[in-house]
Predict the 3D structure of the following.
Amino acid sequence: MGKSLGLLEQIKAKLSQPKTRQQAGRVLSKWLGQQKEKQALDYLQKNGVISIAQNFRCDQYQKGEIDLIGLDTSKQILIFFEVKYRKNSLYGHPTETLSAAQQQRIRRCAQVFLQKQPQYQNHDCRFDVISFIGDKPPEWIKNAF
């Protein structure tokens, strides 16, 4: 209960800062996204993935970003992760929000990452999604796109 109360207090604090409801929604959405990325990272590390980078940005391609980049050491595969969250499945699965344009931006950012980090250029690469629905455990979708 204490953990939930702390979370509620954090959300209330975030919502009290912005001046408009729209700003409050953006702040909450960003904060929830950061929390889910942390949960995804913990989950992946428990499943043998070593974290290489978080929130890798490449402004060359429409301000693209890769949420998490990790290395599956058992297979020497470099994995580019997109983290998706939905409060519930009423309007579909979180992966349904991953558009073809966003997938293309992520692929291009992956190319930029490999150019900047040549030590990974000989690794096989994969694009996975970690999805969350509410408070349920994450779902790891390998080879998502």
User: Anything to note?
Assistant: The longest helix spans residues 21-46.
